[in-house]
Amino acid sequence: MRIRVLGCSGGIGAGSLTTALLVDDDVLIDAGTGIGDLELSDIHSIRHVFLTHSHLDHIAGLPMLADHIFEDNLATPLTVYAREETLRAVQDHLFNGVIWPDFAKLPSPEKPMLRYRVCSPGDTITVGHRDFYAIDVMHSVPSLGYTVQKSGGTFAVSGDTKSNETLWPVLNACDDLKVLVIEVSFPDEMQELAAIAGHYTPQTLTDDLKQLQHDPEIWLTGMKPGEESRIFDQVLAAAPDKNIQMLSRGTILQV
Ligand SMILES: [Zn+2]
C-alpha cells in the first residue's frame, strides 16, 4: 500500500495545501485543496473518497473532483463515504444546486456521477483488498479517523481530534500498525483555542501517545501554517523516545 500526501496543512499559503491523502491510485482520504496538484490521469483513477469530517479544509476539492468525473462522463461513479452528519452537510451546503450542482442526481438520479455511503464508527468498508475501518474521534463536529488494513500492515489516520478515549484502543488492537498520521494543529501556547476547536496540541498529543503500545512511524499533520517548526519542536521535546516526523506535501508513505 502506498499513501501519497497531496496536502497536509491546516491552511493555505507559502506552498501549503490542505488535507488529502491518496491511497494507492484509487482512494482519497479527505479531499482538501491538495488534490489540485493531481494530473488529470490521476484524477480519473480516483473512485472512492473517505471523508473524516465536514470542515472545508478537508472537503474543499470535492466539488471540483466530482465535476471532472461528470465532464468526462466516466462509467463508474465517485463514491463518498463519511458519517451521516458529514454526508448531510456536504449535500446541504456544497452539492445543493446553488454552490455546486447536485451530482448525486446528474446526469440522472438512476445513474448519477456521485453517490453517498454512510460510514459509522465501527464500520469496515473493503475497497480492493484494503479494509477501511472507521474510528470515532473527538472534534468540534462529528468526525472519524480511519485505519486502512492490508496484508503486510496497517496505516492509520486520526482525522481532526482533541484528546479522546476512542482512538488509542483501536490502534493498540492493530498488531501490524506500521504508520500513524496524527493531527496536532496548535502549539502549546494556544491550548485554550485548541480545546475549543477540538484539536491536539503537543502536550495533549504526547500525553495520549503514552497509551500507544506499538512503535509505528508517527507523522504529524494539520499544523497551522507558520507554526510547523514550533509545534514539531514541542512534540519532539515531550516525546523524545518516539519515532516522530513531520508530514509534508509530497511525502510517500509505504505500508
Ligand atoms: Zn476540522
Bound molecules: zinc ion
State the separation between the terminal residues, measured CA to CA. Answer: 5 Å
Kindly report the name of the CATH homologous superfamily: Ribonuclease Z/Hydroxyacylglutathione hydrolase-like
**Strand arrangement across the biggest beta sheet:** 8-5-4-3-2-1-16
What average pLDDT do the residues reach?
95
Characteristics of this structure?
255 residues, seven-stranded mixed beta sheet, binds zinc ion
What does this molecule look like?
With 255 residues, this protein is of the alpha/beta class. It has one domain (2-247): Ribonuclease Z/Hydroxyacylglutathione hydrolase-like (Metallo-beta-lactamase, Chain A), CATH 3.60.15. The chain is 24% helix and 28% strand. The chain is built from eight helices and 16 strands. It has helices spanning 40-45, 56-59, 62-71, 84-93, 167-172, 191-197, 202-209, 228-238, and strands at 2-7, 20-23, 27-29, 48-50, 78-82, 107-108, 111-112, 114-118, 124-127, 130-136, 144-150, 153-157, 177-183, 217-221, 244-246, 252-254. A seven-stranded mixed beta sheet has the order 8-5-4-3-2-1-16. A seven-stranded mixed beta sheet has the order 9-10-11-12-13-14-15. Strands 6-7 form a two-stranded antiparallel sheet. Helix 7 runs parallel beside helix 8 (228-238). The model has no long low-confidence stretch (mean pLDDT 95).
